[in-house]
Structure formats: C-alpha cells, structure tokens
From TrEMBL:
Protein source organism: Anaerobacillus alkaliphilus
UniProt KW keywords: Membrane, Transmembrane, Transmembrane helix
UniProt KW Electron transport keyword: no
Protein name, UniProt field: Divergent PAP2 family protein
Bilayer-spanning residue ranges: 131-149
Taxonomic superkingdom: Bacteria
Keyword set includes Transmembrane helix: yes
Amino acid sequence: MRGIIAAIVSIGLAQFLKVPINGIITGKWDWRQLVGSGGMPSSHAAGVTSLATYVGLKLGSRSLDFALSVIFGLIVMYDAQGVRRHAGDTAIKVNELEKRIDQLSGQDNDSSHDNKTKELKESIGHQPEEVLGGALLGFFVGLVCFFNGNKK
C-alpha cells in the first residue's frame, strides 16, 4: 500500500511543481497545468520511479516485483518522452497547417473547417530533461516514503 501512496504523492507533487517551474521560466502562472500533460517535471516518470524505488528498497533489487516495476517504468518513461512527444510535435504541425490553409484561402471562416472547434493539444509529451526531472523527484519521494514508513 505504501508503494501506491509513494507513486500517487509523486504524481501529485510533479503536477503541482509544473505551475511554479513554468511560471519562473515563462513569467506566466498557468494553473491548468495542475491537471495537464507535458511539462517539467514528468509526473509519469515521477510515479513509476517512486514505485520502483519503494519496491526495490522493500523487497530487494533481485525480486520479481522490482524487476516488473523497473520494466514498467522504463516503458512508461519511453512512451512519455518518445511516442507522446512526437504526437505533440505532429499536433503543432497540423495546427500550423490549418492556420496556413486559412491564410492562403483568404477566408478565416472557411466552410471546410467549420466542424473544427479547437486546435489539437500540442503539449502531451515530455522532453528528456522533463523525464529525468520526474525520475529524480520520484526517486526521492520513494526514498522518503520507504524510510518514513520503516521508522521504529
């Protein structure tokens, strides 16, 4: 149970930290990032790393549970940084293409685009440093949860 708590705390903390980190970098405080995807640190990486850290400390690095949590974590982090980031890059290009088509047609309200109510979401993946930041956060939360729970 404590491993699940470590993962949930890591995810929540990562989501919360996105607001001030982005605010410092851009000068804009966007509270929608509390529930958004993408950004620094990766909550995906934080959650799976804290779980793997806790499981490794609790059951040992030779346990099957630790092996599964590490492999699961690597897949999640690869997906967050790779596949999802490329999907976000594609969304940027599609949104730019939509704007360019409207400019070239000379009509901002072209009837061929009436069904489109909003642009595709562009920030759905992570840069490698965002995944690393989330992994470091998750590692420390996993350590704290393990050692805090094992005080006698």
